[in-house]
Amino acid sequence: MTKSAEKPAIALSGIMRRFGDRKILDDITLNVNRGELFGLLGPSGSGKTTLIKLVTGIDRADGGQVELFGEPMPQLKMLQTFGYMAQSDALYQELTGKENMAFYGSLYGLSGKALASRIQSAAALVNLTDHLDKPANAYSGGMKRRLSLAIALLHEPQLLVLDEPTVGIDPVLRQAIWNELRALTQQGVTIIVTTHVMDEAEKCDRLALIRDGKLIALDTPEAIIRHAGVHTIEEAFIALGSRKEEQA
Predict the structure, then answer these.
(1) CA 107, 112, 117: angle at the middle one, nearest 5?
(2) Residue 189 near residue 160 (C-beta atoms within 8 A)
(3) CA 179, 185, 190, 196: dihedral to nearest 10 degrees?
(4) What integer best gives the mean pLDDT of the chain?
(5) pLDDT tens per residue, range 184-209
(6) Residue 19 and residue 77: Cα distance in Å, rounded?
(7) Angle separating helix axes 141-153 and 97-107, nearest 10 degrees
(8) How far is it, in rounded angstroms, from Cα 238 to Cα 17?
(9) CA–CA dist 196, 169 (Å, integer)
(10) In sequence order, what DSSP letters do the residues of 149-208 get, joined into one string?
(11) In the sheet where 22-32 sits, what is the strand order?
(12) How many alpha carbons fall within 13 Å on the CB side of residue 148?
């Protein structure tokens, strides 16, 4: 299959999700291309986390279709294709950083020298090498986020799904992580990031702006700003959200 004929990394069509009588996601249709750094931007409660749970098969849509690398989701065999970093750190507090990484690495089928090598590489990426022998309960909040990111990278996934990845991380390391995310896309890794930080959103190749479960814009950051007739993503989000409310 030629590159132009490849199916997108993620294809969402008419996605609906309800909790009781409340619509969490309302008719979301979008594609994420392979090797793209794609951002989901929206305030807390807008549906971003629910959307990525559908992409990864953690949750199931009430309507519409989710495909990951051409395969319908949820599907158990697709677990190896992605790395997922949730908003809440799923760490064993009494284990060291290295032991946490070894445990999760074993779940991905890594062992022996391959596992040891990946632990060192992923830890170096997030600047945790000197802290691997400390228990996770001795880590700061930012260090725990970095460990969670290292775990998501362990098995060199085709898709990296990061839910608010830089919360609690200092600005210098945050910049370094974003530089590394960009480098990963150059190697063909697809990355989807949820954020409500406007300067991070502007680093993405394309953005989906979500408000109250609805897709209000989908384009490059520059095109969204231009279409809204404003100067920043934050102003665009406010302006486009107001227009949607007027049309409703």
Answers:
(1) 90
(2) yes
(3) 30
(4) 90
(5) 999 999 999 998 788 888 999 999 99
(6) 27
(7) 30
(8) 24
(9) 15
(10) HHHHHTT--SEEEEESTTTT--HHHHHHHHHHHHHHHHTT-EEEEEE--HHHHTTSSEEE
(11) 22-32, 10-19, 63-68, 71-72
(12) 26
Contacts 24+ apart (CB under 8 A), 100-104: 100/136, 100/147, 100/151, 101/132, 101/147, 101/150, 101/151, 101/154, 104/151, 104/154
What type of residue is 65?
A: Q
Task: Say which DSSP state 21 is in.
Answer: T
Q: Which residue has the tokens 């064993």?
A: 92
Yes or no: say if 82 and 159 are a contact pair by the CB < 8 Å rule: yes
Q: How is residue 45 annotated by DSSP? A: T
Q: What is the pTM of this model?
A: 0.88
Q: Can you read off the two tokens belonging to residue 208? A: 């989906």
Q: Is 64 left (phi over 0), alpha (psi -120 to 50) or beta?
A: left
118, two tokens: 């990946």
Contact present, 190 and 10 (Cβ < 8 Å)? yes
Residue 52: other Cβ atoms inside 10 A: 24
Q: Which of 104, 81, 105 is nearest to 91 (CA)?
A: 104
Beta carbons within 8 Å of 246's beta carbon, 6+ residues apart: none
What confidence tens digit (pLDDT) does each residue in 119-145 have? 999 999 888 999 999 999 999 988 998
**What's the fold here for domain 36-57+77-247?**
Rossmann fold (3.40.50)
Our measurement of the distance from residue 72's CA atom to the centroid of its chain's CA atoms, rounded to an integer in Å, reads 19
Encoded tokens for 68: 């990951």
Q: What is the DSSP letter of 96?
A: B
